[in-house]
Amino acid sequence: MSDKHAKHKSKYTADRMIPGAFEGETVTRRRFMTGTAHTAGGIAAAAFALPALGFALGPIFKSTPHHWETVGPTSQFNEDNYVPVTFTLTPGIGEAGKTTAYVRKFNPKIDTDASDKDSRYIAISSRCAHLGCPVRWVDAAERFICPCHGGVYDLLGRRVGGPPVRPLDRFYTRVEGESVQVGPRFSVNSELKRFSPRDPGEPLDGVGQYLYPSRPSAQKL
Amino acid sequence: MPKLPKLPKKLPAPPLPAALQAPPPRPSEGNGKRGPIEDAKEAGISVVDWVDERTSLSGAGRWLMFRKVPKGTNWFYTLGSATMFAFLSQAVTGVFLAMYYRPDPAGGAYESIRHVTNEVFLGQFVRGMHKWGSSVMVILVFLHMGRTFFFGAYKYPRELNWVIGVVLLILTMVMSFTGYLLPFDQRAYWATIVGVNINGTGPLIGPYLSDFLRGGGEFGATTLSRFYAIHMLLIPGLLAALIGFHLYLVAKLGTTAPPWSKAEERRELHEAEV
User: Fold this and answer.
1) Cβ(A102)–Cβ(A80) under 8 Å?
2) Pairing mode, if any, of strands A69-73 and A179-188?
3) Which H/E stretch holds residue B164?
4) pLDDT truncated to tens, each residue of chain A (221 aa)?
């Protein structure tokens, strides 16, 4: 081993007694050709592999435009109970793109949270924060109940039982003339603080918001 | 009287010298006439010979098919082949289902499946084969895995084959998951919503993995076609390639004896007993 390091090999091919070496040549022609062939092959493979990969991964980085959907006249909603409305969340795929929200007027007695001050209507998403099944509002129990794994939420959408990890998502609302419109989704943590929409099953309390970062494809207003 | 060694009842006839033996009948001489069966045989042989002369594939075929198997090899050793035939059945029925299927989330997917099931000749049968065959394949994969585990067949030098087998198991699960959405009925839709959200609960990369699967932040227009492409192009190719490598390693390394079969006793002991 010491031999190998003791005898310093010359960087010139001519000094290393390689047949056919040129004066001042440091890379043999064989090595140069091998390198060229590998590089050319690598470029050719990258030329189709990288665009294909970008094509498949593109939607992860693409932000989806916000849109507002009219869900009904202002007279349809009241302060005391939820009215279910169905509207298109994802256009272009028919029934599969629709979702349900539970809408009521802002009620200063219940909606004491500071961040809700500006919204005149509260729209709660029916997407369960456990794994995304549709919850329904049960009048008798005054609870949102999920049929899949038994998640239970109170009037404000906060978890009171079952496996969900955070309250129900909400939608931004606004009033255009005489009708109520529902806009993009946002998620809330157990103190009803607003975050960019997360997928179900992703907690937002404590380190949750960092373990499940917000994505370019789903942003709040 | 000295005891003579016991002789067999009938002594074998001494071999005839080669010159006295009758030559075996040639195929062309049998009764002096060549029937169409002999012609067909000859044609088949010459076609195989033609290919073999140019590819030497018969050697590979013999290497693959005529292997030594250990004593005690039993029906449990057929679970791997059974899984492979389940895969082949899925591949063939899947190709024919693809002739009718339309990955259109705005109603076309469900309609095309309804059409296959209710109107196409044998459609219900072929779809049933694919639908139930997927469960059969998953069950067989697990039985095969259990056999390998309990027989200790994953040990040196077969660890790599175990690893490939685990990858094959995962790919089979991905096939089951992506195929479940394709009928696009209520069950398919909600099962996929739940499945993708389970994916999303993985910290840090989970949300991005969900976005990749859906092709966006919400279940959208490209989700179904994405699942369809993964289900019928991406994973089957990987599965077929890895099954090939799995089989190559089985042929190269051979199969293991069942754990209850004892090692052959040493030759000297046998002779000492006599």
Assistant:
1) no
2) antiparallel
3) helix B159-181
4) 455 555 678 888 888 888 888 888 889 899 999 999 999 999 999 999 999 999 999 989 988 888 899 999 999 999 989 999 999 998 888 888 999 999 999 988 888 777 777 778 999 999 999 999 999 999 999 999 999 999 999 999 999 999 999 999 999 999 999 999 999 999 999 999 999 999 999 999 999 999 999 999 888 77
CA distance A91 to chain B (A): 8
Q: Is B217 close to A197, i.e. CB distance below 8 A?
A: yes
**Neighbour tally for B8: CB within 10 Å:** 6
Judge: A199–B212 Cβ closer than 8 Å, yes or no. Answer: no
Would you tell me the crossing angle of helices B186-200 and B159-181 to the nearest 10 degrees?
130
Measure the CA dihedral A70/A74/A75/A80, to 10°: 110
Inter-chain touch A199–B207, beta carbons under 8 Å: yes
Token pair listed for A196 = 């960019």
- pTM to 2 decimals? 0.85
Count the helix, strand and coil residues of chain A and give each as a percent rounded to the nearest 5.
Answer: 25, 25, 50
| Complex prediction ipTM | 0.87
**Chain B touched by A43 (CB under 8 Å):** no
B222: distance to nearest CA of chain A, Å?
9
